[in-house]
Structure formats: C-alpha cells, structure tokens
Amino acid sequence: MAQPEQIIGIYERKAGEFDTRRSRALFERSWLERFAALLPAKAAVLDLGCGHAEPIAAWLIAQGFGVTGIDTAPTLLTLCRQRFPAHDWIEADMRGLALQRSFNGIVAWDSFFHLTYDDQRAMFETFRRHAAPDAALMFTSGPAHGEATGDHAGEALYHASLAPEEYRLLLAEAGFTVVAHKANDADCAGHTVWLAQRKA
Questions:
Q1: Looking at the whole model, is its pTM more than 0.90?
Q2: CATH class of 4-18+27-198
Q3: pLDDT (tens digit, 9 = 90+) per residue, 36-60?
C-alpha cells in the first residue's frame, strides 16, 4: 500500500507529468464560485498544496484575489513563480504551518487528503490560526473514513479520510460553520467537497 511519507518525493519527481496531465477544464468552477462568493474584493487567499498554480490558483488570481501558495515541491513552485510572479509561492509543509498572518480564504484542494488521520486532525488548528474573521475554508476529502491508494504517473499515492461526522466536529471546534458539503459530487469529477466559514 502507498505510504504517506512518500507523497512529497512523488510530486517532486513527477512534477513534469503532473503539470502535463492535470486537467485545466475547471470542473471545480462551481465550488470555486461558491468559495469566492464568501470573500471580500481583493481577498488574501492561502492555497495549501498549490501545485503548479493551474487551474485553482490561476482562477483565484483571475478574480482579483492575492494568492499565497504553499507546496513542498520546488519544481512545481518554480512553475508558479514563472506563471504568476506577482504572488507569493512558499516551499513549506502545510503540517505545522505558521505564517504569522491571516487570510480571507483558505483552500486545500486535492492536497489535504494526502495526510494521515492524525495529521488531518491537527490541520484544523492550522486552518484556525490562519483564518481571518469570516474567512472561507474549502477542502476535499474522501466520502467516508478510510485509506485508499491512487495513481499518479505510475506511482502509488496515499489518501486518507476521516468520517463526515468527525470533519463536522473538527470544523466546529476550530470555529467554522459548514456552508456546504457534498460527497462524490458528480458535477465535480466525483470529488467530496467541504465549504465552511469561520464564525466572526
């Protein structure tokens, strides 16, 4: 079975394939629009696991938001800086992240779910610490508690998910209210999506 500690190395080794294969069709648009509707104009957005910035960060930038992207793959971050040099791209692990600033929006699309159960639980304090009042938070997970193995350019990728009930509890404990949630969204390539907002 795929191991979580392999994730960082895989995305760096396969950066070129990831850039080539990642769909730009923006099947995520409806969720991004709901996320953006919760943000003020020119919002500061933290993109955790930003990859090569396309299409998620690129769409956010096109809406006039300022993006700070976090990723562990230097090659992917180089692509981000080449494509969007006016924005901030930081090599860091989302686990234990401490940027000493807050954001109007936080997104962890197809990244947070590579963490182990305990690392996911700990991330809710990281979300809280970086969330401004009324901040929007959006992330993808699995539909139910369990581990799974995916494939990326021939490499096995670790995925994990907590139960929906636990995500709701962790969000509430971190001061977030669930705005929308859908498991296996057929209109979003089968993604399970959470959208929440920090209570003012």
A1: yes
A2: alpha beta
A3: 999 999 999 999 999 999 999 999 9
